[in-house]
Amino acid sequence: GSGFSISYPENFHASPVANGVQIMGERQDAMVRVDMLQAPAGVDLNSYVAENAKKMYHGAAVGGGSVGGQPARVIHTSGNGSSIETYFMMQGQKVYRITESWPNSLESSFKPGLDKSVQSFKLK
Questions:
Q1: Which pLDDT tens digit goes with each residue over 66-122?
Q2: Is the pTM for the entire model greater than 0.90?
Q3: CB atoms < 10 A from the CB of 102, how many?
Q4: Residue by residue, what is the 3-state secondary structure of the chain?
Q5: pLDDT tens-place string over residues 114-123
């Protein structure tokens, strides 16, 4: 992608989407998506994610984490038999949102590979 690289399982494929890339295999409920967003001037990562948690994630709690050894903020959500983790990283005013989702019934099959993909994310 523009400004980043990410690895993914061999049986998945990457497709460009608006402002990023979506990586998925045969199942529509197991995927990784990277979006690049623009934060308003003067807004830091914590403020950006807190505001998005209220508006877009129905007030979900924000936690700390890392992606590829870099600090990130994380929101965990679930619904319709799937779980979702959304990681946010910031470089300048660009926000990189990395979303991974997997079916709850197949978590042990999908989550390790998806986590490995997310952790391979590197900013250029």
A1: 999 999 999 999 989 999 999 999 999 999 999 999 999 999 999 999 999 999 999
A2: yes
A3: 24
A4: CCCEECCCCCCCEEEEECCEEEEECCCCCCEEEEEEEECCCCCCHHHHHHHHHHHCCCCCCEEEEEECCEEEEEEEEEECCEEEEEEEEEECCEEEEEEEEEEHHHHHHHHHHHHHHHHCCEEC
A5: 999 999 999 9
